[in-house]
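ok so heres the complex, two chains, lmk if somethin looks off
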Amino acid sequence: MDFLNAIVAIANYILVPGIAYGSQLALGALGVTLIYGILRFSNFAHGDTMAFGAMMTILVTWAMQSVGISFGPLPTALLALPFGILGTMGLVLLTDRMVYRFYREQKAKPVILVIVSMGVMFIMNGLVRFIIGPNGQKFADGERYIISARDFKAMTGLSEGLSIRTTQGITLVTAIIVVALLFWFLNRTRTGKSMRAYSDNEDLALLSGINPERVVMYTWLIVAALATIAGTLYGLDKSFKPFVYFQLLLPIFASAIVGGLGNPLGAIAGGFIIAFSEVTITYAWKKVLKYLLPEQFEPTTLVQLLSTDYKFAVSFAILLIVLLFRPTGLFRGKSI
Amino acid sequence: MKKLLMATAASALMASAAFSGANAGEVKLGILIGFTGPIESLTGPMAAGAELAMKEVSDSGKLLDGSTVTPMRADTGCIDNGLATSNAERLIADGIAGLIGGDCSGVTGAILQNVAIPNGMVMISPSATSPGLSTMEDNGLFFRTSPSDAREGQVMADILTDRGIKSIALTYTNNDYGKGLADAIVTSFEAVGGEVTISAAHEDGKADYSAEVGALASAGGDILVVAGYLDQGGLGIIEASLDSGAYDTFGLPGGMIGDSLPKNVGPDLNGSFGQIAGSGGKGTDALAAMSKAAGFDGTSPYAPESYDAAALFMLAMQAANSTDPAVYGAKILDVANAPGEKIYPGELAKGLEILAGGGEIDYVGASAVELIGPGESAGSYREIEVKDGKNTTVKFR
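and the predicted structre for the whole thing:
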């Protein structure tokens, strides 16, 4: 019984939140890694693109809620998501047309594009705050739990509860669907193949007649979709606040770099590595150990490696270690 | 250059005109509380409470030969020391005769040390509760109609013991208020034999508190006491605890009591309990009725204390027959405490009359004002329990 309790406690406080957070980071890191692989720069505006996408979705959700459209037990935001994606696609294409294309034509160095993307980041940052304000917003509706801790306790008779929120379930399912679609697109379709060719060797791709502007446009469209989905899922699962997306930039970049920049598989692995490192290192293990160890070894302290305030320090530390010892990342992406 | 000189001269003229206006029958009182920030949902009724007292006195025409009282609102942001002190400077430049505020303990200390003491301005805070303010050197300029958290710690410990709770986990918002209150609760609860399994800080304004709740859950305890803010991290901690099933019942100190909390959390909050500075009886009821007529909720936390803070200023001015902070400041303790005729909300005119006739009053007001020690409220508390999605008062302590 104690053993089961320990497992349930781990599932409740580590596995479930870790998987949801990991999926959100993986979707964010996929966007960063695509931009890096195809357009060849680190897009610092990605966090705020996510915020913009989530904001568009929230606005459409509110409109739908006000006219009484709902999605049964699922959040209305899922219905609003396609509209949010369209809005974000418009924004990134406009940004590309007005800002990035100029630097592409100049054949600007990647480091210049990084700085340019920071400028774009600040503008998007301001745009989101201007439209929806800097405060937290709630837009989740529908059933809150797939299984709540109280029901689980009543069902199993265990003293530990396991709760899985609907948003956590949706996050995982959506992430799997999106990743499957993305890989199918990159590996099986003509456009996807031309994107990969462009990423591998730009000159050869141009010689074989691939239209670079088309590749760039498709990349932005995919990135906008990924950013909106990641941003909306994060906002649904936790809460929407413009500043939080700015802070998410660090773990997202850490995920992409740990996995290997430019490598989509690596981005997914990196997202989960970062998420689980953050959660396990800042978790207080006292409860679990109490179930597992005999009474005389019971810990008196919390057995917490790092205070939860230092969550972001974990991403930083992993980032540093990877850059020092394996700059190309775990999955052999490009070195920066 | 010429234009600039003209403009300066013009504005100086206007400023001096305003100043002379203040001498001839207009008393300005500053209301410096956090209209934005972590307790913004409380400050609306607080300011309305203070303004109600001012209106009552102005309408009576009995203060200092028919002076009128004008409120001047300004924002502290609750946790923004820079904003609070600059707004305090501005209010003093505008010629206020007394300052109602600040609200949260950190900014109140900052305003006191950086603005009030250098300018010799009297402050009465309706809601700053940090024990640190009791011992801060204030030159006799600082008073509060809310009790110190040291007292709230005792009350919380009593409530927990009465409800048969043996161990608690404690989390506090990482600032002067949270830390002071958490220390007070730990000291008092351990003194009556309770156990505090963990006392951990949380930061406000995060998107996700599941990691913090994981640590709190691991420590164990019968209930979780959240010494935070109801519009901020405190709400996040409670939601994350309910989501993960870590705790079902919460201890809610003053900063967590407000209508928005049961509304935001929903039915899961039922059964949680706490306390907030406030008193029952005649004064509270009188203010509740008056506020209803004026169109706001006079039972909202710290609204009675705000009414009382404003009333104390005006009564002390009347007793001293002066609006000079250096003169009337000494009279605040006299009008607040016995001996004298008891004065309740709505009876300010009567109090002013007695004082004008050289008599003595004992201002009771809406929150049973009794100032002790360095000029802070002795502290009566409402014990609150959340029932059917509403904060209901169980009893008074």
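quick notes: Residues 2-325 of chain A form a domain with the ABC transporter involved in vitamin B12 uptake, BtuC fold (CATH 1.10.3470). thats all i got rn
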